[in-house]
Amino acid sequence: MLNRLERLTQRVGGSNELVDQWLHARKELLVSYCTLVGLKPNKEKHTPLNEKALDNFCHNLVDYLSAGHFHLYQRVIDEVEGANSPIKLQAAKIYPALELNTEAIMAFHDSYTENDIDDDNAFAFHYALSDVGEALDARFQLEDQLIILAFDRSHHEDKPPANEEHLARPA
Predict the structure, then answer these.
(1) Helix (H, G, I), strand (E, B), or coil: what is residue 167?
(2) Residue 145: which region, alpha, beta or left (left: phi > 0; alpha: psi -120 to 50)?
(3) Long-range contacts, stretch 154-159, CB < 8 angstroms, 24+ apart
(4) Is 29 within 8 Å of 60 (Cβ atoms)?
(5) Do 167 and 148 touch, CB atoms closer than 8 A?
(6) What does DSSP assign to residue 68?
(7) What b/e string do you get for 147-165 counting C-beta neighbours within 10 Å, with b at 16 or more?
(8) Using CA of residue 31, residue 96, residue 134, residue 56, what is the dihedral sign?
(9) pLDDT digits (tens, 9 = 90+) for 32-54
(10) Is the pTM of this model over 0.70?
């Protein structure tokens, strides 16, 4: 995910301050996730979870999701609003998938910020953390599509796209 973020940043970085801020926030979220995941469960039974790392990740997660839904997505969609209908339709299809993704991620957040993690649920927590990683990966792929649509639209306004193949999807 960090490598894909770096490639996207190299491609679109500096073209739009809002997108630059968005990608920076994503990097902060990914770093906090990696810090949390990097805490391998120790063989000692009474090793406490690093609550600070979990709190930091959850804080970054809520900030990132909120910024996307309440600020960024609509602005990106507005940028492609004048685009021809295939681009506008593609942008319109991405948003509902992001809403479903948000619900899945927030279920993790709500579950593990309201309940203590102990020996009884530590195993389930690590599975849930893995699931959140997969959900974040899927989310970033969807967001990348929005970013690329807006970027391509703003950099090729005079030339309508021949087809969707011109949109290089991040690997």
Answers:
(1) coil
(2) alpha
(3) 154/15, 154/16, 154/79, 155/15
(4) yes
(5) yes
(6) I
(7) bbbbbbbeeeeeeebeeee
(8) positive
(9) 998 888 744 444 444 556 788 88
(10) yes
